[in-house]
Amino acid sequence: MTAETCPDIFELSDGNFAVIGTEATATLEGELPPDAARADYERIVIVSRETLVRAKADIPDQ
Fold this sequence. Notes:
Shape: globular
Number of helices: 2
Oligomer: single chain
Order of helices and strands: EEEHEH
Strand order of the largest sheet: 1-2
Number of strands: 4
Strand content: 15-25%
Radius of gyration: 14 Å
Helix content: 10-25%
């Protein structure tokens, strides 16, 4: 209601998770470790540590 946005992680009806964060593909693609890769349809998204820590309790173990 304040028109502010914030990062979020939520579970989809099919069991996958969606992430709202800051798009950073162009900035971080060259920083990926050698064992990491990104498909053309994938993007690198930054999610704050606070968001991920808060979401931890809502992410099932299995």
